[in-house]
Design a protein that fits this description.
491 residues, alpha/beta, five-stranded parallel sheet, five-stranded mixed sheet, 20 helices, 54% helix, elongated
Length: 491
């Protein structure tokens, strides 16, 4: 006897939505299983004297849906080894039915024939009851695996698997990342089931405050082309930048090149750093946007030549992050930051080898950007050299080197040429950076802190003089020094 499992779709409502073919299969089934008895057709089967078994007990015994579905499929396969099995599921077998997907994988492996017969899907009833045409654009999403990146406000969105208020709450929080709190949504319960159907329109923030969620519940978020929604998408940003660079766009944006925007990229990065120092999230949000614009403009220029698009940039970054974190996305382990960094460096070396570059033949100093600020570059150069043992052994030696370089600088100031003074001053600064490294202090951060301190104290002098109706340009040094000392005492 040929071993077989026939999967039937019970439709989204009562027996009136059953297809004739499905009804005949139900009536003829020698061994009938329902995934769940919580479906309107179950009462009809009972009234018709059609015997069946359900897997509701499996749901009660398992904590995770994945385990539940695996158990159901294993039971069906076991039963099919001795007799033909009919397995009936709510709605359409190929819509939001994970057990059917598992059967499609497992049945060929087990040598069991699988037939799937469709039924009316809950999507059919959604189109009818919510009243929109899917040709306008539709996305169907699973409430148990909903993420902000999936949302597209230009499409009608139907969310299924909204089993209870807890799931509805998770859905609400995710939707609020894209939609306003008061955005109108519609909850549909038991669509197409006579006497049980209900439609509730409510603002998004009340999504988890309504009753009636269950296996036959859906949430519909109507599509919108409003700018305030589209402006929250990467697609819209890409579109705007393309318009700015188009013949009908902005003359200034059209004229820009990679070279002309070079300084803008640097300036915007520093403005982001300023917001970090200020601990100002609102300002940081704005400045990160300005920095992102620079990335978008450079990517758009290359898209216009056919080289790559910003989506290639994103894909490359995602692939690199996954590749360089084998302790997160692979099988390697990292118990601390040092081990994680070692994994990262190992993957970088592997990438070089794939490009035909032997990391062992590269200079130890390779990989440091040419145009880094000099203070930052000195720090990185020293760290690279120290990594192969070219370093001082203790802090006292570094301090002594600073004194030596200061003496040479003083000699150059007294008797040297301008070139010698430049050279010796650079040596002093390089030695001070070495001391910062030994003290585990970032010299860039240290100097930035002193710059802020100087600015605050100098502003105190200016403001104190202004309060007396005086100008700093007409003030003697000793008076300014007195105010400076006052400023030093301030918290």
């Amino acid at each position: 006897m040929t071993q077989a499992i026939t999967v039937l779709g019970l439709g989204s409502g009562d027996e009136n939505q059953l297809t004739l073919g499905v009804l005949r299969k139900l009536q003829q089934a020698a061994k009938l299983y329902l995934r769940t008895e919580k479906h309107p057709v179950a009462q009809f089967l009972q009234a018709e004297g059609i015997r069946y078994e359900t897997f509701d007990a499996v749901y009660e015994s398992k904590d995770r849906f994945d385990d539940t579905y695996e158990a159901i499929v294993s039971a069906l396969l076991e039963s099919a080894r001795t007799e033909n099995v009919v397995y009936a599921v709510p709605g359409h077998p190929m819509v939001a039915e994970y057990t059917v997907q598992l059967l499609r994988t497992r049945c060929p492996e087990e040598g069991i024939k699988l037939d799937i017969i469709g039924g009316e899907s809950f999507i059919d009833q959604a189109f009818l009851r919510f009243g929109f045409d899917p040709i306008e654009g539709l996305q169907l999403l699973d409430a148990t695996d909903l993420r902000t990146g999936m949302l597209n406000p230009r499409l009608h969105t139907i969310i299924g698997q909204v089993y209870d208020t807890f799931t509805a709450s998770d859905v609400k929080l995710t939707l609020m990342d894209m939609y306003p709190d008061d955005y109108p949504v519609v909850v549909g319960h038991s669509l197409g089931v006579a006497g049980e159907e209900s439609l509730v329109e409510l603002p998004l923030y009340e999504l988890d405050r309504t009753e009636g969620y269950g296996n036959l519940s859906l949430v519909w978020i109507p599509k919108s082309d409003k700018d305030d929604l589209r402006n929250r998408t990467m697609e819209r940003l890409h579109e705007i930048v393309a318009i700015l660079r188009s013949p009908e766009g902005c003359p200034w944006d059209r004229e820009q090149t990679h070279a002309s925007l070079r300084k803008n990229l640097i300036e915007e990065a520093y403005e982001v750093l300023e917001t970090i120092d200020e601990d100002d999230p609102d300002h940081m949000c704005e400045e990160l946007g300005d920095l992102l614009l620079q990335v978008m403009l450079h990517a758009q220029m290359e898209e216009e030549t056919g080289a790559f698009t910003v989506y290639d940039v994103i894909a490359g970054l995602n692939e690199k992050l996954i590749r360089r974190h084998p302790h997160v996305f692979g099988t390697r382990e990292a118990g601390n930051a040092e081990e994680a960094l070692a994994n990262w460096q190992g993957m970088k070396d592997e990438e070089k080898r794939l490009k035909g570059i032997d990391p062992k033949k590269q200079s130890v100093l390779a990989g440091i950007p040419r145009d880094l600020p000099a203070l930052m570059k000195a720090y990185k150069l020293q760290k690279k050299a120290a990594g192969v043992g070219f370093d001082w052994s203790e802090t006292a030696e570094v301090s002594a080197k600073i004194q030596e370089e200061l003496a040479e600088l003083q000699e150059a100031v007294t008797d040297g040429t301008p070139e010698q003074r430049l050279d010796e001053l650079g040596d002093v600064l390089f030695a001070v950076v070495n001391l910062a490294r030994f003290l585990k202090i970032d010299p860039e951060e240290a100097l930035a802190s002193t710059n802020r301190k100087f600015t605050n104290r100098f502003r105190y002098i200016e403001e104190s003089l202004e309060a007396d109706g005086r100008s700093i340009r007409d003030t003697k040094l000793d008076e300014m020094e007195k105010l400076w000392q006052e400023a030093k005492k301030l918290p």
